[in-house]
Amino acid sequence: MTDIRTGHIPAADLNLETSMGCGQIFGWDRRGKTYFGMIGSTAVGIRQEGDRIVFVTESGLDRSRIVSYLGLDVDLGQILKSITRDSFMKRVVGSVRGLRLLKQEPWPCLCSYIISANNRVERIDTIVKQISRELGTRHVVDGEEVYCLPEPGVLAGCAESGLRSCGTGFRAPYLLGAAAMVSDGVIDFDAIAGMPTGEARDLLKTVHGVGDKIADCVLLFAFSRYETFPVDVWIKRAVQIKYFDSGEVKPDEIRRFGQEYFGEYAGYAQEYIYHYAREHGLE
DNA sequence: TCTCAGGCACTAT
DNA sequence: ATAGTGCCTGAG
Fold first, then answer.
1. Is the pLDDT at A59 greater than 90, yes or no?
2. A99 touches strand B (CB under 7 A)
3. Closest to A216 in 3D by CA, of A230, A202, A226
4. Where are the domains of chain A?
5. A122 nearest nucleotide via C1' and CA
6. Using alpha carbons only, what angle is made at residue A163 by residues A206 and A222, rounded to the nearest 5 degrees?
7. Residue A250: which nucleotide is closest by CA–C1'?
8. Is A213 noted as a catalytic residue in this protein?
9. Distance from residue A60 (CA) to nucleotide B4 (C1'), in Å?
10. Nucleotide C2: closest residue by CA–C1'
11. Which residue out of A33, A90, A205, A213 is catalytically annotated?
12. Do A4-77+104-223 and A78-93+228-280 fold alike per CATH?
């Protein structure tokens, strides 16, 4: 493992602010121009300076992990081309530049999305940070404090009351259950990484508090299963209006439509539609 | 005061 | 199978 402290990465086709702020990822803290957070067990500071990404890390993080974390290892132009299947998508894709899917760590991603159930984007972020600060570990990078979400084994040993005081509400037992399953190896992220998507999805759904939507988010945002098409209320509304003449359609049908219509990179289509719907509305 | 927010589980049909 | 309903919590 390379011991990199500082460096930079060419990133002409990345909009860090949009990618960090679009609601796909939680727990990063923006201070001035720099985002501070964890990649695995390493605290990192990242900022964009024109066409490049400048980073500072604690020791022990491979440079290639930063590249993959930022989603820079895919051909964005080709992906966007593939999902631009109609005039609406042309408008959607043209509305924002450099939005990329980040490759999150599985555990923080699972936690974040369990918390996301029936919750607002800003609150999800607040709660993730609260848990990290109260129950996690403190790191320092570039003189800045960064708190890491507790490891599954640690969280599993926490009291439900402590978790509830972080604002998790009825999701507290879900988080504890997930932590126990991960630390016991019932949920094995390395195994999931090697599974067919459908099988991985079924396994993730055995976690209490994880249904179709959250399982799909974890597969898309942590395991790069770009063919998944998570259906939340925004996507449901958008797809109903744009592709089903505003008629009521069940989430599972929306999901299957999205996957078939957009194909290999349906997840990218989902993220762009989501961003567009939230930023511009759907008229 | 009441509704709603990037769902889910539980229950009754 | 599938449609209702309640849920922690805080912001508008």
1. no
2. no
3. A230
4. 4-77+104-223, 78-93+228-280
5. B5
6. 45
7. C2
8. yes
9. 44
10. A250
11. A213
12. no
Is the CB of residue A235 less than 8 Å from the CB of residue A212? no
Q: Is the CB of A212 under 7 A from strand B?
A: yes
Q: Give the closest nucleotide to A119 (alpha carbon vs C1').
A: B5
Q: Closest CA to B9 C1' — which residue?
A: A209
The overall pTM is greater than 0.90: yes
Residue with tokens 């999902």: A83
In tens, the pLDDT along A181-217 reads: 999 999 999 999 999 999 999 999 999 999 999 999 9
Residue A256 CB in 7 A reach of strand C: no
- pLDDT tens sequence across A111-165: 999 999 999 999 999 999 999 999 999 999 999 999 999 999 999 999 999 999 9
pLDDT digits (tens, 9 = 90+) for A7-49: 999 998 999 999 999 999 999 999 999 999 999 999 999 999 9
The CA distance from A19 to A165, in Å, is 30
What CATH architecture applies to the domain A4-77+104-223? Orthogonal Bundle (1.10)
Task: Find the Å distance, CA of residue A230 to C1' of nucleotide B10.
Answer: 23
Q: Is the CB of A118 under 7 A from strand C?
A: yes
Residue range A78-93+228-280 in CATH 1.10.1670.10: yes
